[in-house]
Specification:
Layout lengths: L6 E6 L8 E6 L7 E11 L1 H7 L15 E8 L11 E4 L2 E3 L5 H4 L10 E2 L11 E5 L4 E2 L6 H4 L5 H11 L5 E5 L3 H12 L3 E6 L4 H10 L3 E4 L8 E6 L6 H8 E9 L20 E4 L5 H13 L6 E5 L3 H9 L6 E5 L1
Parallel strand pairs: 10-11, 10-13, 11-12, 13-14, 14-15, 16-17
Antiparallel strand pairs: 1-2, 3-4, 3-8, 3-17, 4-5, 5-9, 6-7
Length: 333
């Protein structure tokens, strides 16, 4: 293996209202229990957009990016189970304390003292990244680097939301982007019927959904063709919560899958009555990843990606903000 460079490149975020800027940093050394990852690809997630727009507040300055695919190029003291040169994925949940009541109850996604990749610890918009070895995932060979990257958040958080939606033969997906196009494929593989709701007038996304096998696709301002058993909201629009509640049948469930959402407007109690539910999803657990990633390979999931160079991170975020993509964007150092 060739010697690692003494420095690394990264797109650094300094604060809200400022574009990311390319920086050269000393190459970091992994500490106890950590690995250094030579990044091959990093997905661009809507959560990254929430970070740079100041919707959520973490550590500054920060290197965003939490859908990291790369190879281990240095091992810190005490690391076991990973080898130099091994390809791994690094997700949003970068560390959990292992001691709080939530961790003790196997709910590490709600840990009281977590670290989040690309938010409270530096992420993958870079040539290299440091990660807690215990929170890295082996990746199925079925996915190359770029196509694996969106699985690390769009797929994983989407899958957690999908599981919380329960046994829903008729499933509605509101917001048909990176997460929805992955979960639609899983749901269809499992024999469910999927209805896709997009921004009104977004015929490109609707055609994409139908091409993947969704039974129906239309605008979020359109009524569902039949009552839904459950709905997952991937869009960050709180106004979709009352809309989705009206679309689900009695006993149905609405799952809000984002880390941030605009305020939910008031709605009549009658829309919630008859044992309808609203759930939110927070983060992920390692168990989610160990279950989902092999399942995605078995289901033949094909992520639709467009690769851009690392230096184009600001362009990628702008395109995501403006809805100018189908599928997912991936940065390549």
């Amino acid at each position: 293996m060739t010697a690692a460079p003494a420095t690394m490149q990264a797109m650094q975020f300094d604060g809200p209202g400022q574009p990311l800027r390319m920086v050269i940093r000393p190459l970091p050394e992994p500490g106890p229990g950590e690995v250094r990852v030579a990044v091959r690809a990093c997905g661009v997630c809507r959560t990254d957009l929430h970070v740079v727009e100041g919707d959520i507040h973490g550590t500054l300055p920060i290197i965003p990016g939490h859908e990291i695919v790369g190879t281990v190029d240095a091992l810190g003291p005490g690391v076991s189970g990973l080898a130099l040169g091994q390809r791994i994925g690094v997700p949003w949940l970068g560390h959990a304390c292992g001691q709080c009541p939530y961790c003790a109850a196997e709910r590490e996604n709600l840990c009281d003292a977590p670290l989040f990749t690309g938010f409270t610890r530096d992420g993958g918009y870079a040539s290299h990244a440091i990660a807690d070895a215990r929170f890295c995932f082996p990746l199925p060979d079925a996915f190359d680097d770029c196509h694996a990257a969106p699985l690390l958040c769009a797929g994983l958080i989407g899958y957690r939301a999908y599981r919380l939606a329960g046994d829903a033969p008729v499933l509605g997906l509101y917001g048909f982007g990176a997460a929805a196009h992955i979960l639609a494929q899983v749901a269809l593989w499992q024999g469910r019927r999927v209805f896709a709701f997009t921004r009104p007038g977004d015929t490109q996304a609707q055609e994409f959904a139908r091409a993947l096998g969704c039974q129906w696709a239309g605008g979020s301002d359109e009524a569902a063709p039949e009552p839904l058993d459950a709905a997952i909201i991937f869009a960050a629009a709180g106004a979709l919560v009352p809309t989705a509640l009206k679309a689900v049948r009695k006993g149905g469930r609405v799952v809000c899958a984002g880390i941030h959402m605009s305020d939910i407007p008031g709605f009549p109690y009658a829309d919630l009555w008859e044992e309808r539910e609203i759930r939110s999803v927070a983060n992920l657990t390692r168990a989610d990843g160990l279950e989902f990633l092999p399942l995605a390979a078995r289901a033949g999931v094909r992520t639709h990606v467009e690769a851009l160079p690392l230096a184009a991170a600001n362009t990628a975020l702008a395109r995501l903000r403006d809805g100018q993509l189908t599928g997912a964007l991936v940065l390549v150092p």
